[in-house]
Amino acid sequence: MAVAFVGLGSNLGDRAAALTQALGAMDAEGLMRVVRCSRFIETDPLGPAGQGKYLNAVAQIQTDLPVRRLPVVLRSIEDRLGRVRGEKWGPRTIDLDVILYG
Predict the structure, then answer these.
(1) Any idea what the Cα angle at residue 64 is, between residues 58 and 65, rounded to 5°?
(2) Which of 8, 36, 44, 101 is 20 to 30 A removed from 60 (C-alpha atoms)?
(3) C-alpha pair distances (Å), 33 with each of 63, 74, 80, 93
(4) What is the pTM for the complete model shown?
C-alpha cells in the first residue's frame, strides 16, 4: 500500500463543509483511506483578482491505486461534489491535488 499526500482547497460556498465532505468521500470511495489531515488553513488566492480566500488542508492517505490513477479518482470525487470547471486558476468549490506519492 502506498502513502500519498493530497492537497484540498475551496474558496466558494461553505469551504469547511466542502473540505469535510471531500475527506469523507475519499474514505468512502474504498480505494484509499485517509490516515490523518492537517488543520484547515485560510490562504490568499493566486490567479484572477476578486476571488475569496481559500481554505486549505493536506491529507495523508494510504492507497493501492497506481500514481497515474489517483488523480483520476480525485477528479471524479470533485465532480461528484459539484465542482464546475471554469477559468484556469479561478474560484472553485473543491480542489483535490496529489502533492506527493510514494
Answers:
(1) 75
(2) 44
(3) 7, 13, 18, 22
(4) 0.94
CATH code, 21 = 3.30.70.560
Q: Number of folded domains in the chain?
A: 1
Q: Would you please indicate which residues are annotated as catalytic (active-site) residues?
A: 83, 92, 95, 97
Rounded to whole angstroms, the Cα distance separating 78 from 32 reads 15
Q: Which of these, 101, 96, 102, 100, lies nearest to 7 by C-alpha position?
A: 96
Check if the beta carbon of residue 45 is closer than 8 Å to that of residue 11. yes
Give the residue among 67, 63, 76, 75 at the shortest CA–CA distance from 35: 63
Cell numbers 483578482: residue: 49
CA 96 – CA 75 distance, rounded (Å): 7
Q: For 9-52, what is each residue's pLDDT tens digit? A: 999 999 999 999 999 999 998 999 999 999 999 999 987 888 99
